[in-house]
Amino acid sequence: MGTTQLETVPEPKYWHLKTVLSEALDSEFTVGEILPNERDLAARYGVARATLRQALEQLELEGRLQRRRGVGTTVAPPRVGVDVGTERHVWPGADDDAWQPVDCAPAVPPAAVAAALESGSAEVYTVRRSRMSHGRPVATELLWIAASSVPDLTAIDAPSGPARARAVLRELQRLELEGQDRAVELGSARADDARELDRLPGSPVLVVTTRFFAGGRTAALSVATYRADTCRLTFGDSPDVEIHHDPEQRAS
After folding, report:
1. What CATH number matches the domain at 80-234, 3.40.50.720, 3.40.50.2020, 3.40.1410.10, 3.30.1490.20?
2. What is the pLDDT of residues 173-216, one digit of tens each?
3. 3-state DSSP assignment of residue 74
4. Which of helix, strand or coil describes residue 59?
5. Which residues contact 46 (CB under 8 A, 6 or more apart)?
6. What residues does CATH 1.10.10.10 cover in the chain?
7. Domain 9-75, second-level architecture
8. Where does 119-246 show beta strands of DSSP type E?
9. Measured distance CA(158)–CA(154) in Å, rounded
């Protein structure tokens, strides 16, 4: 039984077009700019509209393009850096203005979270936050905080909403942070996350789980869900390094 050598397999026409379009995005278009319609693009590159659509769909999957209802296909902004390798440890809300508090409410956490926080069946504070970039949602976060970590919260008047969330985060920052650990995995967007991220359920996401330690125990646990098409992992203190999409070019 014979085998097919990969180097003899012709490159699909849509894939070659995707490469050509990617180079054009870098040299001819700016972030947020609307691309010409499919008919004009197909005529410009001398391809069938079906081939063009395949190339555009691939670029959308890679985060180079975004399709906005009522607007058209636009050039997507650069991917958001998700720092997973820094040695700098800070409480959530202390130095991350990109995240906006959405709500806070007491809730009985999932069993795995309760075990990590050693809260048993007791309620914990659940803070929801969101992250935007260039006007589009790129991440959503659930932060569970043990009630014992913020004992003075009962004196705060705000019952719910962003004000309550900010108050919880301020109280959490009164603790001495002893360290944190982080894990990253590829997952699929659940219905509620998909709704907040403006994606279809099942879309690929990056799930970053972070445990924050204080007083010799886990004081808070964060699960942040990022759109995989808008984010990239960074390791170290240079998250703004430019990444070229042409594989023959080097990152600078």
Report:
1. 3.40.1410.10
2. 999 999 999 999 999 999 999 999 988 899 899 999 999 999 89
3. strand
4. helix
5. none
6. 9-75
7. Orthogonal Bundle (1.10)
8. 124-133, 136-145, 179-188, 204-214, 217-227, 231-234
9. 10
